[in-house]
């Protein structure tokens, strides 16, 4: 449940979001939100942040989404990258990145997905090898958001364990213009300012301090960033679902083709009521996940963050679908602006971890059922 501080934050961010609305200038909104301190609410105060947690950052994203102007890069820059650097970075990395991520003057993208690994991140092959004090990174990534806008991308690679020969995950900060680091935009059917890229790392030479955190604790560090990512994707989905639902409700109150507004027909009203209930339930789960994460319970947060992402993704897809349907033909016009949300809402079902992979997680981890793969 929201505290008084949370309610105040919600109202203030909603006011900013409503000043921008849809369509909006993403760069302008990013910069304003940074100046107002919203981008770094989760980052430590001593490094220019607000000293809050993912509970607060998820409120920012949800409210901007509900106003029709979600900032996708909030999921990546302060939530994943900011969290990982704040928790595991060196003092120099913290000083260089955190104040700038918090005020929005620098942005960081995050790259884990690979063309041949997809949902199976154990299969990633981007490899880092030592050359003197430097690291040399080689590999490919796909669907990485905002690489053109970001000053650097936090790349998940692997290093070879000298004792076992096994590859273990490690995180590297790769500057946008590092030689050998190239990007190709992917032609997505998404109406969003943030583009997705295919990345090639061709013997990218990085200094020793490009490595974030401990070489031997990569997996733990990675999960510290992935739970916030799931919670923030839930916030993204809930915000979008609320936006679509509000548009549909407004329309259903006014539109009349018989002798009452269409919203009086239960065939229109009930699915909208269900969409509202589903979004509220998803938000409760998201708040639980955020509270566990902010309290330092990484394990407990993992299960709750997965469930919240699942519930929010499903609630968002259904809310958008019903909203478009409520507007009849107008649901598909550019003027009413809901049709493009049909594709956008599907992102929350696929990324950062698909609906099926969450069902697998709950089947195996929570219910103890055997694995098929
Ligand atoms: C808009 C957008 C932005 C993104 N941004 C980023 C980003 O910034 N950084 C980043 O690293 N990645 C990003 N991604 C990638 C995203 O995380 C992946 O698309 C996602 O993890 C799924 O991987 P995949 O697309 O390879 O699908 P696949 O793994 O090929 O899966 C395809 C289908 O098969 C199903 N499936 C796979 N394995 C199983 C199984 N064992 N059991 C049941 N079903 C299964 C999946 O659920 C899915 O429906 C983004 C994706 C999108 C669409």
From TrEMBL:
UniProt keyword annotations, A-Z: FAD, Flavoprotein, Oxidoreductase
Domain Acyl-CoA oxidase/dehydrogenase middle intervals: 109-204
InterPro entries associated with the record: Acyl-CoA_dehydrogenase, Acyl-CoA_Oxase/DH_mid-dom, Acyl-CoA_Oxase/DH_mid-dom_sf, AcylCo_DH-like_C, AcylCo_DH/oxidase_C, AcylCoA_DH/ox_N, AcylCoA_DH/ox_N_sf, AcylCoA_DH/oxidase_NM_dom_sf
Acyl-CoA dehydrogenase/oxidase N-terminal domain span: 3-104
Pfam families listed in its UniProt record: Acyl-CoA_dh_1 (PF00441), Acyl-CoA_dh_M (PF02770), Acyl-CoA_dh_N (PF02771)
Acyl-CoA dehydrogenase/oxidase C-terminal domain span: 218-360
Domain of life (superkingdom): Bacteria
Cofactor(s) needed by this chain: FAD
Family: Belongs to the acyl-CoA dehydrogenase family.
Name listed for the protein in its UniProt record: Alkylation response protein AidB-like acyl-CoA dehydrogenase
Upper lineage: Bacteria, Bacillati, Actinomycetota, Actinomycetes, Kitasatosporales
């Amino acid at each position: 449940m929201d505290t008084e501080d949370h309610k105040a934050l919600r109202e203030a961010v909603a006011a900013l979001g409503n000043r921008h609305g849809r369509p909006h200038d993403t760069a302008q909104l990013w910069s304003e939100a940074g100046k107002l301190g919203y981008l770094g609410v989760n980052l430590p105060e001593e490094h220019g942040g607000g000293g809050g947690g993912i509970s607060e950052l998820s409120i920012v994203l949800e409210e901007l989404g509900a106003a029709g102007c979600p900032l996708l890069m909030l999921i990546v820059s302060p939530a994943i990258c900011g969290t990982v650097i704040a928790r595991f970075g060196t003092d120099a990395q913290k000083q260089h990145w955190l104040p700038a991520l918090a005020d929005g003057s620098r942005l960081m993208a995050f790259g884990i997905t690979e063309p041949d690994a997809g949902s199976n991140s154990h299969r990633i092959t981007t490899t880092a090898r030592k050359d003197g004090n430097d690291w040399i990174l080689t590999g490919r990534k796909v669907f990485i958001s905002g690489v053109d806008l970001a000053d650097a991308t936090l790349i998940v690679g692997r290093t070879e364990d000298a004792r076992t020969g096994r590859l273990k995950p490690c995180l590297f900060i790769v500057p946008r213009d590092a030689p050998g680091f190239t990007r190709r935009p992917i032609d997505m059917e998404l109406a969003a300012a943030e583009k997705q890229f295919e990345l090639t790392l061709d013997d990218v030479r990085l200094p020793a301090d490009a490595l974030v955190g401990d070489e031997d604790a990569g997996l733990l560090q990675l999960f510290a960033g992935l739970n916030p990512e799931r919670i923030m994707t839930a916030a993204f989905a809930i915000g979008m679902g609320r936006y679509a639902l509000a548009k549909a409700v407004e329309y259903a109150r006014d539109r009349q083709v018989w002798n009452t507004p269409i919203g009086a027909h239960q065939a229109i009203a009930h699915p909208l009521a269900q969409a509202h209930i589903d979004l509220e339930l998803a938000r409760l789960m998201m708040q639980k996940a955020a509270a566990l994460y902010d309290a330092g319970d990484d394990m407990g947060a993992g299960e709750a963050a997965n469930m919240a992402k699942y519930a929010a993704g499903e609630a968002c897809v259904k809310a958008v679908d019903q909203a478009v349907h409520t507007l009849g033909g107008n649901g598909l016009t550019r003027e009413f602006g809901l049709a493009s949300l049909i594709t956008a809402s599907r992102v929350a079902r696929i990324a950062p971890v698909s609906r099926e992979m969450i069902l697998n997680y709950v089947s195996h981890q929570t219910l103890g059922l055997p694995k098929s793969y």
